[in-house]
Amino acid sequence: MGIVPLAVVSLFGFSVYAGALTSSNSDNKSDTALSSSYSSSISKNSSKNNSTSSSSEIDKAVVSSSNSSTTASTNDILEKLNEYTNAKSAGPTKNYYWENGTARLSGFEAIKAGEYNFNADDKGRSGVARAVLTYSQYEASKGSRQGQPLDPPAWPSSNPKIAITFSLTERTYHGYLYNRSHSIADSMLGEGSYTSKYNFSTGTRSQNVGANQNGGMRYAEELAENFWKANPNTSSTIDYQTTPVYNANETIPRGSIVDIKSSDNTLNIEVIVINSAEGLEIDYTSGTPISSTSQSVQSVASEPSSSETIQKAPAVTEPSSQATASEKSYTANGEWSVASPGMVFVSDSNKYYSSVTNPANYRYMTQAEASSIAQPATRGNQYARP
Predict the structure, then answer these.
(1) Which residue positions does the secretion signal occupy (predicted)?
(2) Which residues of 34-73 are buried (b: 16+ CB within 10 A; e: fewer)?
(3) Pick from 24, 49, 122, 302: CA 20 to 30 A from residue 32's CA?
(4) Which residue has the higher pLDDT, 40 or 77?
């Protein structure tokens, strides 16, 4: 695997790197921009006592760069992300993430428990997302999606259908290349996660859930979810921060830095997520796949949110079984859509149900197929029933 040559340039007391835009042996260099360098903050209150009203304030936030060791560590991350994405690689774990020590948080001084803010960088791209998460938010978000994914800034005009064969699992994903990827997930923030387009970035399917549905961004999310499961009804909180990382003026991030720290300090970690797809070379300026080493690329117009939502649910089985599933329609019973015998609705949280109010938020398949990638829901809510 080729290593992209990089140059260090001193600017305002911290370094930024130059990264190649295309192949792993490219010699082109350009200034690299972090989404966290300069950002305009759009703050919203997610208090459950005032969940229907929120206020926004726009200001400037500058991430401190006085700590040279922090700067060096961040630059190392940029270098590795350039290396892995240019090589069309899943990274050292083969699951589109790696761990990078303890959390490095900033900007949480004014954020109270249950609150969050989403930021745009100085180029209008999705920037740093922060939240002080509570157990009650996690509990309220269970069951099904609490909203519809929003188009992030510079969402590609074309979202091709592709096939990605994962070296970790030797299984193949068939579906859309890109997801509208949460910086802070529905499973932790609920309906608050849908209040700003700056909480979304253009992420490959593998960036979103990895090679086995438990990698990529999902790996970081499950760390927080597992903390809540181990500490039910706790008063502890989790500081959760996601920073998309871009090269220069590119509009698609090369990856994200996810920092997670619980108030009792039993959870304290930084996770780096890689925004790539094995075998696919991506133009991170336009989002267009440049080439594929092993798979054909079918270009299609960018699909509507509901279609993309279905693709965000686990989708790694072969198309033959999915074709059989799609031929069996569900029926309507008032506001509920009821699965046919032997069929279920699979949620993004890997649970399956027999009845749902919004089938577009689920993937419809046979129960036998669902059992290999999901678990039966043990309880329902106003959106879904076991």
Answers:
(1) 1-20
(2) bbbbbbbbbbbbbbeeeeeebeeeeeebebebeeeeebee
(3) 302
(4) 77
For 184, the token pair is 């802070």
Do 277 and 189 belong to one domain?
yes
Does 298 share its domain with 211? yes
Q: Which of 303, 330, 354 is the last residue of a domain?
A: 303
C-beta pairs of 370-377 under 8 Å, 24+ apart in sequence: 370/344, 370/346, 372/317, 373/213, 373/314, 373/316, 373/317, 373/346, 374/314, 374/346, 374/347, 374/350, 375/350, 375/351, 376/351, 376/352, 377/143, 377/347, 377/351, 377/352, 377/353
Q: If you compute the radius of gyration of the chain from its CA atoms, what whole number of angstroms results? A: 20
Q: Residue 29: what are its φ and ψ, rounded to 5°? A: -130, 145
Q: Across all residues in the chain, what is the average pLDDT?
A: 77
Q: Is the pTM of this model over 0.70?
A: no
Which range has the worst mean pLDDT, 74-88, 111-125, 260-274?
A: 74-88
Task: Identify the DSSP state of 151.
Answer: P
